[in-house]
Design a protein that fits this description.
Chain B: This is C-type cytochrome biogenesis protein CcsB. The structure holds 2 protein chains of 2 kinds. Chain A is an alpha+beta fold. Chain A is built from 11 helices and 24 strands. In chain A, the strands form 6 sheets. Chain A has a 6-stranded antiparallel β-sheet with strand order 4-5-22-23-3-24. Chain B starts with a helix and ends in a 9-residue tail after the last helix. Chain B is globular, with a radius of gyration of 21 Å. Chain B folds into 2 domains: about 280 residues, no CATH class; about 100 residues, no CATH class. Classes of the chains: A alpha+beta, B mainly alpha. The interface between A and B is large, with 70 and 77 residues.
Amino acid sequence: MNKIKCECGHVNPEGTVLCESCGKPIEGNQHIDGNDKKKLLNMRYDGTARRSQTYNKSIIDKIWSFFSSVKVGVWLIVLALIASAIGSIFPQEMYIPADAPSRDPAVFYEAQYGIFGLIFYQLGFHNLYSSWWYMVLIALIGISLVICSLDRFVPLYKALKKQKAKRHETFLRRQRLFSETNAVTDEEIQLIKQQLKNQKYKLQEENGHILAEKGRFSRWGPYVNHIGLIIILLAAILRLTPLFYTNEYVWVREGQQLVIPGTDGEYYIENKDFIIETYDKNDKKFQEAIVKEGGEIPSNFQTNAIIYKAEESSVPGADPDLTKIIEDSIRMNQPIQFDGYSIYQSGYQLNEFTNMTFKLHEVEDAEEKALGSFTIDLNSPKPEYILDNGFKVEISKYYPDYYLNDNNIPASKTNFPRNPAFVLLVYPPDSEEAEVSFLGIGKNIDATGENDYKLGITDFEMHDVSGLAVKRDYSLPFFGLGALIFMIGVIQGMYWQHRRIWIQPSNGGLLMAAHTNKNWFGVKKDIEKVIAGTQVNMVNDQQELDD
Amino acid sequence: MGDLTTISSTMLYITFILYLIATIFFAATIKDKRTSSKKGNAGKIGITITIIGFLSQLTYFVTRWIASGHVPVSNLFEFMTFFGMSLVLAFIIIYFIYDLQVLGLFALPVALIIIAYASMFPTDISPLVPSLQSHWLYIHVTTVSLAEGILAFSFVSGLIYLIRQIDQTKSSKRTAWLEVVLYSLIVFVGFIVITVTFNMMNYNATFTYPTGGQTLESNYHLPPIAGPNDGELLTKDANQPLFETPAWMHGADAGRKFNTLIWSFITGTVLYVLLRVVLRKRIGAVIQPLLKNTKPDLLDEITYRAVAIGFPVFTLGGLIFAAIWAQEAWGRFWGWDPKEVWALITWFFYAAFLHLRLSRGWHGEKSAWLATVGFAIIMFNLVAVNLVLAGLHSYA
C-alpha cells in the first residue's frame, strides 16, 4: 500500500484525491474525480480513496469497479425500465381475459394482436416478469447496490470522521461557494460563531479555523435505503420457497365442506352462503353512472364461511374431528385470517345446478302420470337409478356444461354443472332393451322416435360457488422491514442536507467557503443569516453550469 | 344531495376561472419587470388568486366527498382533477420558498390543462365497486397524486429552463424537441377548445357497441371520426364514422376516448400551425425573451429538489401503500398489472434521474430534459394505460 502523506502531516490511503484532514488536492490523483480539468473540486465523496478507483489489476478489482460504477447502475435501471415497459404492451399470461375465445397463450396472442402478438409470445414476453433474464437483471441491480454502497460508504465515513477544521487554502478557494474578506474584527467573528450556533450548526475550531457542520447524518441516507432494497430483494427470494409462501385457489359450493388446500389437511372450510349485492338503481346520486355502466354495479361480494380445525381422530383412518374456530364473512378487502393463513374472496359462479329430479311417464299418457321419479346429484351422479316400480335408468353420458362443439357433437365446456345434459337409457322392468333419451335444459329428444316412455325434469335446486384464494406469506414482515428501512433512508437522504461552512483567517481578513450535497439555495440563505450584521462578504456562487 | 353535487361542480368551474385569471397576473409580472425596476403587485395578486382558487377547489373536493359518501378520487375524472390540485399545492409551497413568479406562468397553465383534460372522462358520481371499498383508496390515491403533483413540478421548472437556455438563433435537434414538448401541450389545449366548442353546440351522437358480452351505449360529444368497435349509430342526423376503433383498445368507451384523442391532435395541430404562421418563429423562440430575467441555476435546483422531495412520497404512495392495499384486497402485494408496472417504471426513472445527478455533466439542460421525460411517463400512466392497456385500474 502506498500511503500518501499530506503536507499537513495526515497520512492518507492510496488513491485519495483530497486529503482527508485538510482537503488539499493530492498531486497525481486529480484525474480520478476530474478535478484537473475544472476550477471547482468534485466534492461528491469528499475526495476519498475508493477501492473501485484505486485498484484495477485483478479480475476481482475489475468486477468491483464495474459494479461500483454509478453509470453501470443507471444502465441496469434503464434496462429494467425498458424491459418492464415491453412486458406491459400486451397482457401477461395471467391477465388473458377469462372471456377470450382461447386462453391458450400459443393461440391467444396471435389471434388477438396479430404478428406482434406472435412475436411477443415467441420471445417469452407473456411471462416476462418471471423470466430468468428479468430476474438476472434485478439480481445485477442488487449486486450493484451492495458494491456501490460499500465502495463509497466506508471511505466517506472515515473521511468525515477525520476531517479537521483547519483546511488547506486551495480547498476553500475551489469550493462552489466562496468569498474573501480583507478585514474582519474579533467581534464579527464572535457574532458569526453565535449566528452559526443559532442556525444549529455544530462548530469545530482549530487556531481560528472554523468548521461549521450540520445534517451529516443525511449523507448516510442512500446507504440506509440501499440496505432496505437489499432486504426487499432477499425477501423476494425467500418468497420463492413454499416454506415462506403458499398460494392456493379453491372453489367451494354453498353447503359444501372441504379441506382447505395448502394446509396439510389441518383446516376445513364450509361455505354457508354466497352473496352478491348491487347498488340500488333508484339511488339518485349514482343513477347516471349506473345507467352508463349497463344497469348493474356490484356493491358487495361475500362468502359466509365457517373455518374448522381438524383434531386427530382417536380411531386411525377415520375422519378427523372438526372444531369450529371461526364463523365470519369473507368480503373484498376483508379476508378471513387464522394461524398465518388468509382467505380472500376472489371469484364466484352463480346458479350452478345442485340436483335435478326427473319423472318417468308413458309417451301416450296425456296426463303424464308419473311411473316413478329419481333425483340426480349433479356433483356426484350415480351410474344408474332403480325406480320403485322396477324401471332402471342408466346414465350413458353426462355433460355438466353442455354445448355443441365445432363438429356439432355434444360436449362439456367445463366440469361444473352450469348447463347439465344427459343421455339416459331407460330399461323397462325385466327388459334388456333400453330406450335412449337426450335431456337437457329446454331439450328433450327421443333419438329413435320409437320410445314408449318419456323422462321429464320436474324439479331442480341451484347453488352459487365461491372462488377463494388461500394464502400464507411469512415473507411479508421482511418486505415490510425493507420498505420501512428504505423509506427512512430515502427521507434521511432527501429531506435533510449535509451543509458545511469553512472559515479561515487570512492576513487580518477571512476566507469563507461552503459545501452542501444538495439545496444550494438553502445553504446560501443560511450564510446570509450567519454574516448578517458583519462586514463579511457574501459567498459567490462559482458554479460552472454544464451544457 | 343533488344540490351539493351542483355546488361541487360550480366550485370546480370557479376554480378553473380563478387559475386562468391568476395566470394572466403572473404573465403581467414579466411586463412589470421589463418596464420598471421595482417589483410590481401583479405577482402578489397572482398568488392570492391562486390560493383562493386552491381553496375553491378544496371546496369542490369536500362537497363532492360529502355528496358521494366516498373520497372523490375513485375514477379518472376525479383523480386527474386531484392531480391538478396537487400540482397547484406544490406550486404554492415552492412559490413561498423560492419567490419565483415565473413558475406560476407555467405551473398554472399545466394545472389548467390537466383539470380540463379530466373533464373528458365521465364526471358522474359513481358508486364504489367492492375492490375499491377500502380506506386504502383514500390513503393510496391521495399520496400518489400528491407525489405526481410534486414530480410534475420538476417538469414545470425544467421546461422554463429549456425555453430559457436553448439556443434559438439556429435550428437544431434541441429546438425541434422543445417544439415537440410545446406542441404536446398545445394538443391538450386543442382538446379543450374542441370540447368546449362542440359542447356549446350541444352535439351528440349515440352509439351502441358490444363489450364483454353486453351491449353498451356510448355518447359522442364530438363528431365521430372513429366509431366504437362494432358500434351501431343510433342518432339519425349524425355522420357515420370514417373508421372503427381497433378492438385492442379496451375499457369502457374506448371508442369515444380514441375519437376525442384524434380530435385533440387535429385541433392541436391546427392551433400550432396557426401560431407558427402568425408568429413566424418557433414558439420557444417567442417565449425565450420573456424569461431572460430568470436564473437558470435556480431553475435547475428547483427541478432537482422537486424530484428529491417527490420521490420518497411517490415510493410511499405509489409502491408501498399500493402494495399494502393489494395485499389486503387480492392477497398479493404485487401483481404486474399494467398500472403497477408503470408505477415501477416511473420509480425506476426517477431513481435513475437521482443517480445521474451524482455525475458531472447531468445538471442543467440534461436534467431538464429528464424531468420532461418523467412527466411524459406520468401522463402515460394516467392516460394511456387506462385507454390502451386494460387492467385492474381501468376504471372510468
